[in-house]
Amino acid sequence: MTKQCRTLLATMCLAIFSCGAYAQNKTVAIGYQAPLSGEHAQYGVLFRNSATLAIENFNKSGKLPGVTIQLKFEDSKSDAKEGVNIAKKFSDDQSIVAAIGDFSSGVSMAAAPVYAQNKLAQLSQTASHPDFVKISEYQFRNITTQAYEGPLIANWANANGAKKIAIVAIQNDWGQSVVKYFADAVKANGGEVTETEMFNPGTRDFRSILTKIARSNPDAIYLGSFYEDGSAFLQQKVQMGIKQQVYATSSLYEQKLLDLAGPAANNVYLSTTFLVESPEPHVQAFVKEYEGRYGSKPQMFAAQAFDATNIVLNSIVAAGGANATRAKVRDALAATKDFPGVTGITSFDPKTREPSKILTKLQIQNGKYVLLK
Amino acid sequence: MFDIFFVQQLVNGLSVGFIYALMAIGFTLIFGVLNVVNFAHGEVYMIGAYAGWLSITIFAPPLFVVILVALAIGALAGFGLERIAFKPFRRFRDEASLKSKAMREATLLSSLAISIIVRELAEKIFGSNMQTIPQDYLLLTPIQIGPLSFASGQFLIFGLSIVMLGGLQWLLKRTQVGLSIRAVANNPMGATYVGINTERTIIATFVIGSTLGAAAGLVVGLYQGAIFPAMGFAPGIKAFVAMVMGGLSSIGGAVVCAIILGVAESVTTSFFAQGWGDLVAYVFLVMTLIFFPTGLFGGGRDRV
Asked: Which of A28, A227, A308, B43 has the CA that lies 20 to 30 A from B183?
């Protein structure tokens, strides 16, 4: 045995020994379910990036000495059955004190009863279906829903003098909630909804809908869609010479919309909770760190996941760190108040578990999102 | 209800109909010859759009060069498609195999397989998102005629459909290739016996059909501002419906039916909601199949 070998062996023994010495270093785990393959894989990847970043920062920060937080990430494939299986797996894993996910409302709601039954808190960063948090007291979300956003935009449009508004939204659960909450708020303000048009997912030609809107002659148009449909809509609106002001849902806050739609996107009003260009230092720190590690600027979805992870980490601290139990973490989550996240200051309503945030108003000007005061 | 907006709605419908027609032309040509649905036609359409888009982002040539690139790549794609998905199943030349339903269904599935593989590959390479098209190339320049709004792309799509339809009729009636295509479509065995090179004719059909498909994909992609891997699917379904309504092997019939579908959709949107548009289109299909089982223009199988 050479000297080198002996040194190596000694080091190894020491390493094993020292591990034993730190045995009381407790590991607390967070389960994260999101699609890493399948139709929505791109979102799951963003979530994993953000969650990994948040947890590594937390472990380095030493907020909980002697406790290591571990991230257990599972691929739900954007499939409800898979989501249920993961929820069962997480529930059986006693080291997990809280779960985050899934991406879509559908999968989140499929997994929710399993979490409720096992009394494990579930926080979704994106599930915005109105019924999600109504499933049990174990469901949370940190994304604002249309119940919050719709009236805000309605008031904004009404304050700008638009009384007659046409609504265009995608035909799905989310789109229906866009229409409902916005229309209710417009009517409550004494305004009028001239036309409500739901379009099928995958529609590329909006000219028929635009013609119908032009006939109803509104003061403004409210658009509830994702950026790809939104960009086609805006381009065709300009081509058809329809001049009405467009207000849009926060889902259109996406760099890709500006690339796709070009000048057609100018003047659109919208709101957002996360602004990459925000001057606030903690947002800039997140943007810089994320970009440095993953090579692209974080968008809304990545920021939502970053905040969701941090809210859970915060609740674990509040629930006693090493002694955190599932029940205590749930109660701490429900008590979340004024959490300073990158998507704004977030509070959960202790009863309904609905989040409230401050929405930032934006306008697209010369191909850029510009913050409105 | 019957005001200028209604006329605008008809214009919208016509432009949608011509998009379906562009796709239906190549689709019906291939069906007419082989009597089998080529499920990969939507992917050829997508490949044409991507080829054009790549040439735009790399060289930024004038539009007609971009179309030529799409045509060339479309021809290649058609040739490759025939080689991989259709040719291997024509190895058996005995009469039983030629008449076998299993053989026909085999190419149905192999073309579906190619379609899935190509689409997934495109998603892997380019991502499933829509590609950013430089604004200068978008065929969305507004053209206002009186109170009606048109886009430059609508005229190009209209023109292209007329040129394709006319060119194809000329090709089929006046050229050697076209005559052999019609002969093979009519009776492949008979065509072989009189000395027509069936293999080469089938390849030619695929090349021509796919060239048309690729050009359609590019023009529609630029007109809608939407080039993405799954772009061929929705118009593919409508082109299929138009082909069935038109009598399976009548190209002119498919074009007329595609226009009926487009106008029906937009007029329905005008009176009800957009979601009902597809329903009306399919009601037309069902009614056609009940009252005209061979399609509106399908006299027999001899026409291409």
From this structure: B43
Residues 10-29 of A with CB under 8 A from B: none
Number of independent structural domains in chain B: 1
Helix (H) or strand (E) holding A16: helix A3-21
**What is the tens place of the pLDDT at every residue in B193-207?**
999 998 999 999 999
A248, A175 contact by CB (below 8 A): no
Nearest 5°: the CA angle B70, B72, B75 is: 105
For residues A138 and A121, the answer to whether their CB atoms sit within 8 Å is yes
Q: How far apart are alpha carbons A119 and A110 in whole angstroms?
A: 15
Note whether A170 and A226 are within 8 A (CB). Answer: yes
- What residue of A is the nearest CA neighbor of B271? A212
pLDDT(B9) > 80: yes
Q: Which residue of B has its CA nearest to A207?
A: B12
Stated as kind and residue range, the H or E segment containing A344 is strand A344-348
The residue of chain A with its CA nearest to that of B133 is A260
User: With bands split at pLDDT 50, 70 and 90, how would you rate the model's confidence at B294?
Assistant: confident
Q: Is A238 on the interface with B (CB under 8 A)?
A: yes
- Specify which residues A368 forms β-bridges with: A365
**In angstroms, rounded to a whole number, what is the distance separating the alpha carbons of residues A290 and A304?**
13
Question: Considering CB atoms only, which of A198, A208, A256 is closest to B9?
Answer: A208
Q: What is the ipTM of this complex?
A: 0.88
Q: Which domains does chain A have, with CATH numbers?
A: 26-143+280-356 (3.40.50.2300), 146-272 (3.40.50.2300)
Q: Give A-chain residues touching B223 at CB under 8 angstroms.
A: none
Is there a domain that residue B143 lies in? no
Instruction: Assign residue B220 the CATH number of its domain.
Output: 1.10.3470
Residue B274 banded pLDDT, cuts 50, 70, 90: confident
Residue B90 falls inside a structural domain: yes
